[in-house]
Specification:
The structure is a single chain. Helix 5 runs antiparallel to helix 6. The chain is globular and about 60 Å long. The two termini are 14 Å apart. A hairpin with a 4-residue loop joins strand 3 and strand 4. By secondary structure, the chain is α+β, with helices and mostly antiparallel strands. It is 41% helix and 21% strand. It has eleven helices and twelve strands.
């Protein structure tokens, strides 16, 4: 038996940093995916190992089922329909399963993902042998929700093989869970995110699970649906950033300039709400689409200016802004800033030749570029034989 699941990454369209201080923000899924395939051996295979192959980082892990039972003796008592949190003691036990693998120092961040894998796998499927293969179109550590997409696609694949959800194994092509099953996958993915990030907001895994767009404010998440196709150029600066330090820096600036920063954060709130309103409004003609794109460009431009006021831009981000501005395109950072990724709106009437020129110039600067549609589907799965 084999199942394959995929889940999208995410971007913040408007409101990053300000959301920490009570303003609204808008996040969206992107057309870049992480895929997980889980193959259970047939009775004739006589296989008693659990193997995890992370294709994009060139790492493979394998454990005997006896070793899994030794590390997690209580895993068979977990119920897949009731997501549970992995405690610190269990994380320490799982870490012993990685001691025999020589993970390169440059890839040590992968360890938390492997711990999340072992917890989710044994919690949902118990002590079963399998071969799990993970591949992704998302760059790691770039603020595009790669860890959430991993946890969501993994949870979806495992649940599809479990007794906790009802699926038709004869279904062909990519299919979605029902809302109840989506909620269950999202809750499990959040447990994986907690292992990887400690105290995640839940935004990334929710966007990855349900797709489309989410507006969030003061902890409340509202799913919204776009009534227009948005295409973005996503440029990875390849500059690492310290999210915690950047968030703290904005808070410190607010303490030093309370009145000015309150105005900045209030303005971001208005921008996020207007962004959500524009993208949900109906377009009746090509002219309507063009006008909506122009409004979105203006909102992105204002949001970027306010992010600069917060002190979270970076020289690499400014280089991208200048480059895209030469082609009369509007860009803004997405996520924490200080590096990471930059969004550039690609209007529907923009010639492909212009897009190629922009990408070429950005790549010459050492940046990594992706073109993706915004607000597509979330978690989907399929049963098939992969070559």
């Amino acid at each position: 038996m084999e199942v394959r699941a995929r889940a999208p990454g995410k971007i913040i369209l408007a409101g990053e940093h300000a959301v920490v201080h009570g303003s609204a923000a808008v996040a969206a899924s992107i057309g870049l995916y992480t895929s997980v395939s889980v193959r259970l051996p047939s009775p004739n295979d006589n296989d008693d190992t659990l193997t995890l192959h992370l294709m994009d980082v060139g790492l493979e892990f394998s454990w005997s089922i006896d070793r899994i039972k030794e590390i997690l003796p209580g895993s068979v008592n977990n119920v897949a329909s009731s997501p549970t949190t992995c405690c610190e003691e269990t994380i320490k036990l799982i870490l012993t399963a990685l001691e025999s693998f020589k993970i390169p120092e440059a890839k040590m961040g992968i360890a938390s993902g492997v711990i999340a894998f072992l917890w989710l796998y044994t919690s949902i499927l118990g002590n079963k042998a399998a071969k799990v293969i993970v591949s992704s179109e998302l760059p790691l550590g770039a603020g595009l929700g790669s860890s959430a997409a991993f946890c969501v696609s993994l949870s979806g694949a495992l649940l599809a093989l479990s007794d906790s959800v009802e699926v038709d194994f004869d279904q062909e092509g990519w299919v979605s869970f029902g809302e109840k099953e989506q909620q269950l996958a999202n809750r499990w993915a959040f447990e994986g995110e907690k292992i990887i990030h400690g105290k995640p907001s839940g935004i990334d895994n929710t966007v990855s699970t349900f797709g489309n767009l989410i507006k969030f404010k003061s902890g409340a998440l509202t799913c919204i649906k776009s009534n227009m196709i948005l295409k973005m150029l996503i440029t990875n600066t390849n500059v690492g950033r310290n999210t915690k330090a950047l968030v703290a820096g904005v808070s410190e600036r607010k303490k030093r300039h309370p009145d000015a920063m309150t105005s900045v954060l209030t303005a971001v709130d208005f921008i996020s709400n207007e962004f959500a309103s524009v993208i949900q409004s109906t377009s009746f003609s090509d002219d309507d689409v063009v006008k909506k794109e122009q409004r979105i460009q203006e909102l992105m431009e204002m949001n970027q200016g306010l992010l600069q006021c917060m002190g979270v831009s970076h020289a690499s981000i400014e280089t991208i802004l200048r480059t895209t501005l030469k082609y009369e395109l509007t860009s803004k950072l997405t996520g924490a800033g200080g590096g990471g990724c930059v969004l550039t709106l690609l209007p529907s009437l923009l010639p492909a030749t212009v897009i190629d020129k922009v990408i070429g110039e950005l790549e010459q600067c050492g940046f990594q570029c992706f073109v993706a549609e915004i607000g597509g589907s979330g978690l989907v799965f399929r049963f098939d034989v992969l070559s």
